Amino acid sequence: MYSAFPSFYRLLNQHRFSYPLQEAVVCGDTRLSFGELYDRVNRVANAMAALGVTESSRILWLGQNSHALLEIFLACSRLGASFCLVNWRQSAAEIAFVLRDFDPALVFWQEMEFAPTVSDAKIQAPGLASHWISLDGQGSDGYRQLLADASPEGTDTPAAPDTGRALLVLYTGAFGGQPNGAQISEPGLFLQSLVHVNVFEATSDTKTLVSAPTFHITSWLDMLPTFIAGGTLCFARSTDAGEILDLIGSERLTNGTVQPPTAKKIAELNADGSHDLSCFRSPLTIPGWTEMTSRGPGISGTGQTEVVGPVIVGAFAGEGSTPFCGRPAPMVEAKVVDDTGAMVGAGEVGELVIRGPVAGLGYWNRPELNAERLSADGWWHTRDLARRDRDGTISFVGPKSQMVKSGGENVYAAEVENVLKTHPAVTNAAIIGTPDADWGQLVTAVVVTKPDLNVTVEELQEFVRSRIARYKTPRIIHFAPELPLNAFAIDYKALDREFGGGGYPGEEQKNGSNIGATVRK
Predict the structure, then answer these.
(1) Nearest-CA neighbor of 333 among 370, 302, 359?
(2) pLDDT (tens digit per residue) in 474-489
(3) What gap in Å lies between CA 17 and CA 160, rounded to an integer?
């Protein structure tokens, strides 16, 4: 049945006629026109259908950046399946949790990089997923053979886009102690991407770097506006500074997210000016990098994965606005409310709530949490504190729950604290963030230990590192006789004062290296 909602697969079908000579994808030695991409997407979709994938089936991706993830995403658009990307930096236990929770019918995985981790995860979550397709394998279970054996025949009747069905699922940080799969509908994702076509001034001449991890929503808001505009996507497997430097210079890339530490490293590598980066537009103000690149727009404002990124859009705030400030995107309603749900006055702080096609699906397999977050009349409670100023702009103040932002990654205190408290020598623990010029914040732990047991900083770091992703491991650990309390809860503000915490998302940035957006994951 035809749906008037936009579809990424239907748009691909149009692009092969609208831009017959345009490169759609560059990835290593692979270069694809929109017509070639269309054929490959149909091969993937037909192969997936032959393996039993139907509307609302769940597909998992465990790998670094590749043109294959775009092909599978577009195949899911055609079939009506849900596509979930796992954080490949996670431990085997964390990946096993997602396998059990999401229960996919099909897993695409990168064997070369992650075989030991995936093997451990499969042991911890046995019997899940009927089919595992190796992205870099050469055998009969490899992605290349999957495409070779499938038909390139397309369809004029793809699955109808549906605001009640997820196309994309991204697991958030563990703000409540465990991650949750944020569900994003195709119409919501398309409309948000369409807004950012204008924000990025994307055209068919746009050439976008895709190096940011695609398990973050910001990477999709790099990719999809360029795809909608008929531009070219250039994939880098990871955020390696040398590879990105070479790609920007050789492919003459114009757009893409580069985090401050990577930009700083690129500036050092290109100090001799051997690569011309003037084509690349960047909002960052990093010594060396700023002089090599051109000034350009970036993702700015405030939002979270659950509402498809920044729906309070910085580009709508006007000249001279502060970071983390903007006005609502055209397809959403936004309010700042108190604990009763009543709107607060101008200049007052309350919770940001969102209503529109970007919100409403909530989390996969979390009915109780969804009931807490989504009101009966469709308002999604972000659990972020915000303020609507007298000029109508909305500014992000901070998360209701404790969160640290380190190197572009969200680290939720509850998750790291829970791990630390399982160590036999630890009785209590708290996580704060300490400002850092390169990383934004460093994950910092304040730990209370049992008086009869000794443990070193290095031992605790290794303990955490073996259980959750490396970037969540505290860089700094302080030992304290007790944690300060505010009533019965940990007093994080007191810990910040005592141990130098600060620099949280929404606070005024002093080093000029912030990209001007906060997106909760």
Answers:
(1) 359
(2) 999 999 999 998 766 7
(3) 22
Residue 86's pLDDT band (cuts 50, 70, 90): very high
DSSP secondary structure letter of residue 64: S
The reported pLDDT for the residue numbered 520 is: 59
pLDDT digit string, tens, across residues 416-449: 998 999 999 999 999 999 999 889 999 999 999 9
CATH annotation of 301-399: 2.30.38.10
d(CA 294, CA 83): 35
Residues of the chain with CATH 3.40.50.980: 8-16+35-161
Residues 282-296 have a mean pLDDT of 94
Contact 200, 282 (CB under 8 A): no
Which regions of 440-491 does DSSP assign to beta strands (E)? 440-449, 476-479, 485-486, 489-490
Beta carbons within 10 angstroms of residue 198's beta carbon:
14
In CATH terms, the fold of domain 403-520 is GMP Synthetase; Chain A, domain 3 (3.30.300)
For the chain, the first-to-last Cα distance in angstroms comes to 34
Tell if the pTM clears 0.90, that is, is over it: no
Selection from 184, 224, 219, 242 nearest residue 87 by Cα: 219
Percent of the chain with pLDDT over 90: 73
Q: How far apart are CA 245 and CA 240, in angstroms?
A: 9
Tokens of residue 327, six digits: 């006005």
